[in-house]
Amino acid sequence: MNLGEVSAHCYNITTSYLSANNDSAIIESTKVAIRITRNHFLQEIFPRWNPFSDQISFSYNGGKDCQALLILYLSCLWEFFLSSIQVSQYPPEYHLFPLKSLPTVYINQAETFRTLEESIETTRSRYFLSVYESPRNQTSMPEAFKNYLEHNTHTQAIVIGIRYTDPFGADLKCVQKTDSDWPEFMRIQPLLHWSLSNVWSLLLYSNEEICGLYEKGFTSVGSVNSTIPNPYLKRSPGADRDNNGLKNHFEWEIRNAYGKEEPTDEVRVSAFSSSDAKILQEAGTLNYYPGWFLIDDSLERAGRARR
Ligand code: FMN
């Protein structure tokens, strides 16, 4: 595969999702969310910052939100490419996809889980990300971006997978300048209107490998010292039959995931690292339902506390 092929694959995922023959409330609202994001990219963002130049970059940390946004970004990149060759005087076979890798920035400030690091490595090659990684523990986030911009002087805009329900997310806009205490560039935030259930619905349907921490009950991943699995997903002994009242709302997406030849209950997750297993075992936090059993946005960060 190359970046053009994986972009075409992501385009097929979203197109297939949009034609899904299922009118559950979650799938209906996710279709609306996808169309809004797609319009942002194709009508507002790409005409302003050419995605085939180095004007635009993608902020990637391996989490579920930015992976969902990356699938949408690549899908739109493919569509943008198709529309650009339509107006060309040469036949389609003469057109090469103009990008070999996607400029990506990974701000890594604190010690993260090994499982997440390994999953980032996998996605790095899966999606042809050319990742700039900030030096760990050396700088604040604005400092890290200042360094990034010093190395990537053409970057004008950075795509971020933040949502309205994230801390400080409520008043953000899809396209806005950074705050005055940050280095100056445009923040591109086309996932703001997505709910937690929208993110899970697309991601689980995509059949793309997701970070193995989510299967262990994580719903939001920060540093090792400040993240545990979500307490609302804890399995209590004897309560297995009704899952503590929790339910998998994404059975359809999982069983009918893109590219599955037969419906199965398998979710593709990255390998769970033995060093993380040890950390969770010591903290007594190994027995949790998968992260996608939680769809209440207000509880998403309940595992983001000190141990
Ligand atoms: N936070 C600000 O207060 N002002 C900013 O101008 C700003 N710009 C950002 C630009 C980028 C590319 C990124 C990745 C983040 C920026 N942030 C800014 C911080 C985010 O709003 C958010 O607080 C941060 O990514 C932490 O999110 P997390 O807790 O989900 O990891």
UniProtKB/TrEMBL annotation:
Pathway(s) served: Cofactor biosynthesis; FAD biosynthesis; FAD from FMN: step 1/1
CDD domains hit by this protein: FAD_synthase
Keywords: ATP-binding, FAD, Flavoprotein, FMN, Nucleotide-binding, Nucleotidyltransferase, Transferase
Keyword Oxidoreductase among record annotations: no
Domain Phosphoadenosine phosphosulphate reductase: 56-228
Gene Ontology MF annotations: ATP binding; FMN adenylyltransferase activity
Stored InterPro entries: PAPS_reduct_dom, Rossmann-like_a/b/a_fold
Reactions catalysed, as given in the entry: FMN + ATP + H(+) = FAD + diphosphate
Swiss-Prot/TrEMBL GO biological process terms: FAD biosynthetic process
Keyword field contains Magnesium: no
EC number of the protein: 2.7.7.2
PANTHER family listed in its UniProt record: FAD SYNTHASE, FAD SYNTHETASE-RELATED FMN ADENYLYLTRANSFERASE
Name this protein carries in UniProt: FAD synthase
Annotated source species: Lachancea thermotolerans (strain ATCC 56472 / CBS 6340 / NRRL Y-8284) (Yeast)
